[in-house]
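Q: I have 389 residues here and want to know how they pack in 3D. Can you give me a structure?
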Amino acid sequence: MLLVPSTLLLLWFTGLFSLVLLGSGAWLVWEWYDNWAVHLPANPRYLIWGLLLLITAFLGRPIVTLFVGRQSRPGEEPMKPLTGGTVHRVVRPDGTQLHVESFGPAGAPVLLLTHGWGLSSAEWWYARQHLSERYRLLVWDLRGLGQSAGPHDHQYGLDRMAGDLNAVLALADGQPVLLCGHSIGGMTTLTFCGLYPEVLAAQVAGLILTQTTFTNPVQTALGAPLNRVLQEPLLRPLCHLTIWLSPLVRVMNALSLLNGSLTLANHLLQFKGQETRQQLGFTTALLLRANPAVVARGMLGMLEYEARGVLPVISVPTLVIAASSDRATLPAASAYLTAHIPGAKQFMLSPAGHMGLIEHHEAWANAVDDFATRCFESAASKTPSGVNV
């Protein structure tokens, strides 16, 4: 999940709305009780409206979910955190401890999957379902998210994340690897291409860039002209405010989950109405688990991101996956990547939002499988017989 100005502002809006909802309900009930306790006429409307607001504040989510998302298909297995893989811990020089898991046959071609910001490797639930029989999947939690510990110096720049990706890549044991990144995962992959061209040429069989961008995401999100105006006077200070008030933001997010406003915001910003209710609930819960301070620091790191210069020198096959109604990363960003990476191909998920790889997980997995098959066959044909890679 790529944090863009509209997302950050809406999260703060839903959080403040949740505090007002809870406070208003408590105040109305107290006003009724205060009058009743001193034997004054107590307006029953205060009690009724106060209780309704309190009930909504704590139990509004089931009502919201009745109107958003689709019913799951019969027999569809519910999404849940990934378990059962081989666990690795990768320690970085700045104190970051990366949680990595591998799934699938040990000798199979490797797909290294990097998730979107604010989520965790659990995002790859469907990737495991569809692809782990044919490929070895390496999934990891970005620094400070999921089960990965953050750095001692609280640095979340894209260059640091690209270094983390390079360290995770070492777990492929020299095998050819397909790098697949969603949102900030794609940004991390492009940064890696610029910082480690020798590794890219030697070991990477191809890239899959899913709904990602080539520059500061403020520039390629819905409302970009306004975003640019608001970046310095509002967005950057709001990120710092989120860091300073992280415990309060956690409480606001929890209240937003209970009253359903966080679920509604996730539905409106990240999907296009094709998601099931359990997909919506699962991704919303992942967002809630993320440390707000880490999320905000990552947003500050994204504001400094730029990868235009890297695109023309990428020499490996590249698949760009876009979504027709992505508000966080407009389809034009994917079109730019396709036009400026030599030989890149584009695949469109439609109708889909920023979580299109979950909304249309079968179509996404089929596109990945087809591209990966061609990439690994090409890599194998270039390897001299009898030589291990």
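Q: Anything worth noting?
A: DSSP finds 15 helices and eight strands in the chain. The CA atoms of residues 57 and 259 lie 5 Å apart.
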